[in-house]
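Consider today's protein:

***
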Amino acid sequence: MVQRLSMDEIVNAVCLNMAERHEVPVESVQVELLYDEDQGFSAEVWVNNRSRFLVEANLKEAIMRYMETQYGRRVYPSQIQLDVEDEIWADIAE
């Protein structure tokens, strides 16, 4: 069975992860998910008005923390498959 996370949930995962990591309120984090055929999945994140880019491994790390805190599931990077059509989503394998 596969659990699918929507684009909104991925954004929430990154916001929560970055807020915790930088010890700021989650409201002070903004995220824009990106996909490029050459570069793959990434995100531009603003924390306290400072921009930084996250690569796919960083996105998977945020999703792993989110799955543990929100769903009580421990998952590994190999279980997370990011995909895109009209929007980005993540499939989490058992």
